[in-house]
Amino acid sequence: MAQAQEFEKVLSSSDTSVAAFDEHKSAVKRIQHFLHSTPAAVPLIVLVLAIIIFGITIGGRFFSSYTLTLILQQIAIVGILGAAQTLVILTAGIDLSIGVIMVISAVIMGNCAVSYGMPAVLAVAIGLAAGAACGLLNGVLVAYMKLPPFIVTLGTWNIVMATNFIYSANETIRDTDVDTQAPLLHLFALSFKVGTAVLTLGVIATVVLVLILWYVLNHTAWGRHVYAVGDDQEAAKLSGIQTKKVLMTVYTLAGLIAAFAAWVSIGRNGSISPSAAVTDYNLQAITATVIGGISLFGGRGSILGTLFGAMIVGVVSMGLNMLGADPQWKVLLTGVLIIGAVAIDQWIRKVSA
Amino acid sequence: MTQEPILTARGLVKRYGRVTALDNADFDLYPGEILAVIGDNGAGKSSLIKAISGAAVPDEGEIRLEGQPVAFKSPMEAREAGIETVYQNLALSPALSIADNMFLGREIRKPGFLGEWLRMLDRPAMEKRARDKLTELGLMTIQNISQAVETLSGGQRQGVAVARAAAFGSKMVIMDEPTAALGVKESRRVLELILDVKKRGLPIVLISHNMPHVFEVADRVHIHRLGRRLCVIDPKQYTMSDAVAFMTGAKLPPEAALAA
Questions:
Q1: Strand partners for B86
Q2: What value of ipTM does the predicted structure carry?
Q3: Contact at 8 Å (CB) between B86 and B174?
Q4: Domain presence at residue A213
Q5: pTM for the predicted model, two decimal places
């Protein structure tokens, strides 16, 4: 032991139980700790509750595998966009442009395949590359120019949207044209029945994508770095993480995933419209992410939560539809869920020590 | 000193606009010693440390590590050369686990296909090494190696940061104000930790404003004043008030110390 100073001599008779923990934690505290270590638990619990409540009020009709798989089909695109948004929000950023990146990628895929007569595989590849390029632009502006993500993506949202309208001349590519010339673009509409359950390839792609991202975020160095950058960028930099590179790859990957969502959306919508409801998709993806427990302050949450968050919105809107409620109730409930999710996030953060 | 210094710096100059933070500063660190760096606010301590740890690039001057000239452009390069730094803000990610934090930026991957192609982290190996390191430094009051750093106390966090530096530092460890934010008891633990690290043969540069701590653990005291090294004194031959007098310019240092 180091030579203690005069005033420290009394320490030897002090209480030596350094890290004794209070074993009789209250139930609430224990729940708080559990939620802290398992961030996807809250949305999962809410999801199960929502299914039970609607199941009881609507009855067997709701519990049918047909209805439940229909919900999955409806949330596939929002789920994929939400996964992209999750990556960005984990770095304490936000990407307002993923909705328009999806639309322009879809238009490029359609134009390449139908108007220019390229092979469908090439058209898809070009569409994906375009999405990644838009993401890369966001990434460069955020990481190297050090502009706030909100401003950057608000700007690129407008830029990409305008480019989209100028490039496409606001012309819709018809369903039948896509079907005859490039059936590959409709790949994700492929459905198969298991009993009464109807699964599309798009639904499976969504789930697989989220599982892959979950693996990457939790079991690779890059994934840990994404969390570290969102948690405390300065600390991450000092502990040797190349924060700029991490930010660049995150935004680029988000753009790429948005382009992938475009491919899935062509399958679901059939036709390709440059004026698809971008704002809706954008906000729904952010909503799913927030309800899924991803902290807007970065560094916290599990991507599985985003999938649950998207499912919650899907279950609530389907349930209210079947009850014949005014659609505004769905909007109202979504708002309540968002505020509730953020409130719970704040509460869980206070767990320390 | 008959030994060769492990790290020397000569004539370091660093300017920020019209402010000269380092004005021909020199620095020597010998193997196995604890060298304290003290100085008034604005004397250029941080700039000196930044130059050595790679966080800032000096405008002029030369740094030699074991006789070889080095020019670090980032903290990463200094780390690769074996110089670890414990920053005042600790540079830990609160939401990540202790093990994840200790290996941040130099994770271990699983061998074979899983690591090579799926890039999977070897959590068991990282947790084992982290646990070994913390136990070695007597820090195993932390029960769960996978708990988030934000659930630890200030002293425990400092312990994790020191353990990280000790685990990877092969040449030297720099500690910036390691006891500044801690209570009496926790400071004591950290000082013991510093001496433990020294016992294992790693030289340590200790930046501190806490004179009692400096005089207790340091082998030599480097006094920085007005951007340069004023003198190096032996803490056994001078008192704390002498040191403060030199550092603030109230008293001129003796000729012998100036030559050191």
A1: B175
A2: 0.82
A3: yes
A4: yes
A5: 0.86
Q: Which domain holds residue B214?
A: 7-88+173-259
Identify whether A174 is part of a domain. yes
Asked if the C-beta of A296 comes within 8 angstroms of chain B's C-beta atoms, the answer is no
Which pairs count as long-range contacts for A243-246, CB under 8 Å and 24+ apart, including other chains?
A243/A143, A244/A143, A244/A144, A245/A143, A246/A91, A246/A222
CB contact under 8 A, B79 and A240: yes
Tell me: the pLDDT tens digits for A188-218? 988 888 878 888 999 999 999 999 999 999 9
Residue B214 lies in a domain: yes
CA-based nearest distance A236→chain B, Å: 7
Query: Is B133 part of any domain?
Result: no
Give the mean model confidence (pLDDT) for residues A257-284: 88
In a domain, A20, yes or no: no
- DSSP letters spanning A108-164: HHHIIIIIS---HHHHHHHHHHHHHHHHHHHHHHHHTS---HHHHHHHHHHHHHHHH
What's the number of domains chain B is made of?
A: 1
CA neighbor of B164 nearest in space, from B246, B95, B106, B250: B106
- Give the pLDDT of residue A19: 43
- Residue B115 one-letter amino acid: G
Which residues of chain B have a CB within 8 Å of the CB of A239? 91-93, 101, 104-105
* Pair A352, B154: CB distance under 8 Å: no
Residues A146-202 pLDDT 10s: 999 999 999 999 999 999 999 988 888 888 888 888 889 889 988 888 878 888 999
Q: Read off the DSSP letter of residue B103.
A: T
Task: Say if B144 falls within a structural domain.
Answer: no
**DSSP code for B30:** -
